[in-house]
């Protein structure tokens, strides 16, 4: 079983999330050019020095791209050690990918606020992709662990890694599809009951498409 989160790890996670949320809020209020690391740190209740322990720039803080990009250990353990078999692998992986790639927050409005920033400052989108790519590397390692626990065999380590990466990328489709739905119709978030509901709709379509393949 995964080790229980230490107080130090919990404090670091909460501080990182607080800085992430403070960066988004400050930039929405003051604009990207006027928002400063000092004000973001103050809003989060930490020092500027502490800010730089987590993020190199305010842009990194906005998208959550830090030196310690990681996937929650409990989330990864539950995915890798799931008792489910191959029949739910795609669905399980799609859910794992979604949870791993999204920045955790107690604020349910955070994703919508982040999307507003990306619309206002398109230059931040590349930063977001950088974060997603780093997380995808970590996610792929866990996907490979799941495949091996299911008894999958590979001709080489390279083949194993490429297979796990392909599955990870394939199972990002429901998340990407949900994002496109929200982008095309932002009102859908409220109409359908939140981003989770939109993702579930995309995941349902994903399963249907896979079931219809020969």
UniProtKB/TrEMBL annotation:
It comes from the Bacteria. Residues 36-55 bind DNA. InterPro entries: DNA-bd_HTH_TetR-type_CS, Homeodomain-like_sf, HTH_TetR. Keywords: DNA-binding. SUPFAM superfamilies: Homeodomain-like (SSF46689). Residues 13-73 form the HTH tetR-type domain. The keyword DNA-binding applies. This is HTH tetR-type domain-containing protein. It comes from Brevibacterium permense.
């Amino acid at each position: 079983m995964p080790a229980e989160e230490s107080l130090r790890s919990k404090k670091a996670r909460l501080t990182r999330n607080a800085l992430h949320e403070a960066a988004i809020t400050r930039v929405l209020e003051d604009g990207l050019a006027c928002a400063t690391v000092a004000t973001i740190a103050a809003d989060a209740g930490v020092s500027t020095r502490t800010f730089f322990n987590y993020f190199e720039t305010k842009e990194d803080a906005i998208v959550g791209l830090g030196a310690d990009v990681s996937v929650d250990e409990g989330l990864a353990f539950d995915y890798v050690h799931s008792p489910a078999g191959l029949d739910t692998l795609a669905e399980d992986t799609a859910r794992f990918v979604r949870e791993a790639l999204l920045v955790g927050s107690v604020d349910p409005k955070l994703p919508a606020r982040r999307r507003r920033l990306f619309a206002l400052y398109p230059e931040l989108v590349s930063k977001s992709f950088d974060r997603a790519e780093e997380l995808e590397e970590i996610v792929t390692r866990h996907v490979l662990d799941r495949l091996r626990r299911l008894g999958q065999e590979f001709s080489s380590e390279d083949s194993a890694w490429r297979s796990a990466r392909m599955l990870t990328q394939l199972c990002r489709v429901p998340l990407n599809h949900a994002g496109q739905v929200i982008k095309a119709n932002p009102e859908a978030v409220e109409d359908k009951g939140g981003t989770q509901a939109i993702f579930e709709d995309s995941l349902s379509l994903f399963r249907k498409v896979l079931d219809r393949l020969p």
